[in-house]
Amino acid sequence: MDFSLLTALNKERSERRAAVLVTDIGTGAQRLILRSADTSADPLHEELQRRFRSGKSGMVELDDGTSAFLTVNVPPPRLVIIGAVHISQALVPMAEIAGFDVTVVDPRTAFATEERFPGGTLKAEWPEDVLKSTPLDPYTAVAAVTHDPKIDDIPLIEALKSECFYVGALGSWKTHGKRVERFKAAGLSDAQIGRIDAPIGLDIGAASPAEIAVAVLANIIFALRKEAGGLQ
């Protein structure tokens, strides 16, 4: 690989930005495609978009009869849980087993304790402060479970603006209706607001915190692997 391409690729990796290295099988020529780039005129446009979503490398045949290998580099999936509640205690180990890098954010000292969340997953700070140093991105899922708009709203709005692949919020339909009104007043579009999984989680009749955690993780995995058109 050309040194300048390697340098550019490593920079994207360090910034949690996705990129695809396209290698022409016939000539060996390589080019780097950034997820942020406008690829609408690229003959590989649709394939690139699928690969950015799936994270899977592979061969592709072009219309002109040539072949290319797409080496896909995407950040590992993250889960940011807003609220150090009982659901979160069950969700953290499940999500970690499933391969997510998990962070729990909650400024409330009664909930945000090392005893309840050992292992370095906890940030006992306001979400807006955490997001200054750890911004959200399209490879992050956000689950807000505090039931408190003062804590949930800012990260939910930021998650929608950042195009996080999953955005979920705990609460009844009535609670969500009020949330929709607040978010419209904040300038979000109907399409953005419509992406919120609320009431949160797969409808499996979950009752206990552990069952709700299973339901939430199911929808997160669905959004990551299926809903966005990920390759199988």
TrEMBL record:
Indicate the segments forming the XdhC Rossmann domain, all copies. Answer: 79-220
Among Pfam families, the record links this protein to: XdhC_C
Annotated signal sequence range: none
Q: Which Gene3D superfamilies match?
A: NAD(P)-binding Rossmann-like Domain
The protein's name is: XdhC family protein
Q: Which organism is it from?
A: Roseibium polysiphoniae
